[in-house]
Amino acid sequence: MNINSTKFRDLKVIKFKKFSDIRGNIIKIFNKKKRSLKFDCFESYVSLSKKGAVRGLHGQIGKFSQAKFICCLQGKALDVAVDLRKNSKTYSKVFQKIISSKNLTGLLIPKGFVHGIVILEKNTILVNFCSSPYNPKKEFGININSLKLNIPKMKLYISKKDRNLKKLETFAKIKK
């Protein structure tokens, strides 16, 4: 596994290695001994989504904030994160990256970001490891439609809850 830094402090892009033989493939997706991967998992989720499904952008406030480790087991997704760490050089900037079962790429997103995904292929399976428990009373989010993203033309399926989230520009003005 190769771990690469980005212009966003502590946001890492992980390139997995696949080992293949006559039985199939195996991919190690996490190794705690990697010093540049500072992550403790509290809970994890697996999502199976149809093409066009949008999840997020979600985050949790203050001490309830979650770091996330995301990887794609099947299919393809556009992964999106926005830095909401007040004193960060990349405050309110958008990070986006295609993760897929073919490019063997995962992400480590630090605390202080909101996170979401747009599913680009049918039957996409993602695994999302979280550093702290989900707390619906401390959750907030940003409407994905308020971001300038490179989303291919397709029908998007966005939950009512996510359609009603604040726009990034509104949120950024409140937090400054």
Textual characterization of the structure:
The chain has 176 residues and is mainly beta. It has one domain (2-175): Sandwich (Jelly Rolls), CATH 2.60.120. The protein is 7% helix and 44% strand. Strands 1-2-10-7-12-5 form a 6-stranded antiparallel β-sheet, with no helix packed on it. Strands 6, 8, 9, 11, 13 and 14 form a 6-stranded mixed β-sheet that branches. A two-stranded antiparallel sheet has the order 3-4. Strand 1 (2-5) and strand 2 (12-15) form a beta hairpin. It is globular and about 55 Å long. The chain starts with a strand and ends with a helix.
In terms of structural class, how would the helical and strand content be classed? mainly beta
CATH topology-level fold name: Jelly Rolls
Topology order in helix (H) and strand (E) letters: EEEEEEEEEEEEEEHH
The shape, in one word, is globular
Q: How far is it from the N-terminal to the C-terminal residue, by CA? A: 37 Å
Number of E strands: 14
Q: So, CATH architecture? A: Sandwich
Please report which band the strand proportion falls in: under 5%, 5-15%, 15-25%, 25-35%, 35-45% or over 45%.
35-45%
Unreliable residue stretches? none
The CATH H-level superfamily is Jelly Rolls
- Give the biggest sheet: 6 strands, antiparallel
Count up the helices: 2
| Spatial extent as radius of gyration | 16 Å
The percent range for helix content is under 10%
Give the tally of structural domains. 1
User: How do the strands line up in the largest sheet?
Assistant: 1-2-10-7-12-5
For the record, the CATH class is Mainly Beta
Average pLDDT, rounded to a whole number, is 89
